[in-house]
Amino acid sequence: MGFWIFMLIVVLLIPITMIVFGWLFSVRTPKEINCLFGYRTKRSMMNEETWQFANQYIGKLWYICGLILLPLSVIAMSFVFGKGTDTVGIVGGILTMVQMIHLIGVIIPTEKALNKKFDERGKRR
């Protein structure tokens, strides 16, 4: 039971992080372009407008993905309640990998949206 609780907490870390930072980026976008905090790619850091757009866009995606992944992760972990540590560990690992794909995968639609909205010099199309 103790290992199941530990794995549940581990599995919930990514969706909770996505919800918190998604909300933070979409509502309170980092004010200045910086190298420490925010969605940092070459295109997003071109100017203030691309910075604001990219952070708000990825924030909304993370927030939605986190809200979807959180209950699904709890449901999936409930199926292995009371099972052996191997089963709990494998299911927890698979869930974490799926969550990581969503956490990182939102880069693709964000970059596509930036490319659609701004030209290669960061000017609005």
Task: Give a concise summary.
With 125 residues, the protein is an all-alpha fold. It has helices at residues 2-27, 48-78, 85-105, 107-117.
What can you see in these coordinates?
- The chain is mostly helical.
- The mean pLDDT is 93.
Question: Helices, strands, pairings?
Answer:
Layout: H1 2-27, H2 48-78, H3 85-105, H4 107-117
Helix pairs in contact: 1-2, 1-3, 2-3, 2-4
Please report which band the strand proportion falls in: under 5%, 5-15%, 15-25%, 25-35%, 35-45% or over 45%: under 5%
Shape: elongated
Q: Helical percent range?
A: over 70%
CA radius of gyration: 17 Å
Structural class: mainly alpha
First and last CA, distance: 56 Å
How many separate helices?
4
Series of H and E elements: HHHH
Top keywords for this entry?
125 residues; elongated; mainly alpha
